[in-house]
Design a protein that fits this description.
Number of strands: 5
Radius of gyration: 17 Å
Largest sheet: 5 strands, antiparallel
Helix content: 40-55%
Order of helices and strands: EEEEHEHHHHH
Mean pLDDT: 89
């Protein structure tokens, strides 16, 4: 499925480079693993079972530049807000783990809009929402920088211009 040297997005770990394909013997079975190194955490390694559909479902190839530009220019879906805290946390936890860029962009936009509304009303922004916003932005930032081949400063200006 993937090749050594390929860049992928892996769950909440963000953009990773596949640095090796190894085989390990576990419970008398030989299991192949992709060895992943996150681009924003050099030296850290994750092992992704190459034949485990559940684990592989949490990974995907990087978006193309055209796909990325299409996703970030889609209008915000304001109906996505989930008012019930526990349901929202569960949904966001699953969403971040899924590495679904389109859904994460919508989540970031939704959380930013909610934060603005809360602050305008003199209310606090939930810490858990702030954590989800930070995690999603970290994952998206590494993918944007990698795909668009721009610096972090250029990315910040770009994201502000399109309101992400």
């Amino acid at each position: 499925m993937y090749q050594v040297g390929q860049m992928i997005v892996y769950s909440s770990h963000g953009v990773c480079s596949i640095v090796d394909l190894v085989e390990k013997r576990i419970d008398r079975k030989n299991i192949s693993y992709y060895v992943l190194e996150p681009v924003d955490q050099p030296g850290t390694r994750y092992y992704l079972p190459s034949e485990n559909p559940v684990a592989l479902a949490k990974s995907r190839p990087l978006c193309t530049k055209n796909d990325l530009l299409r996703i970030v220019t889609e209008p915000i879906d304001e109906k996505r807000w989930i008012a019930e805290d526990n349901r929202r946390r569960q949904y966001y936890r699953e969403l971040v783990a899924s590495a679904d860029m389109q859904a994460m962009v919508q989540m970031v936009r939704c959380l930013r809009l909610h934060r603005q509304t809360q602050l305008a009303q003199g209310k606090k922004f939930h810490m858990s929402d702030d954590n989800f916003l930070r995690d999603a932005k970290r994952i998206l930032t590494t993918e944007f920088i990698t795909v668009l081949q721009i610096s972090g400063d250029e990315l910040e200006q770009y994201l502000q211009s399109i309101q992400i």
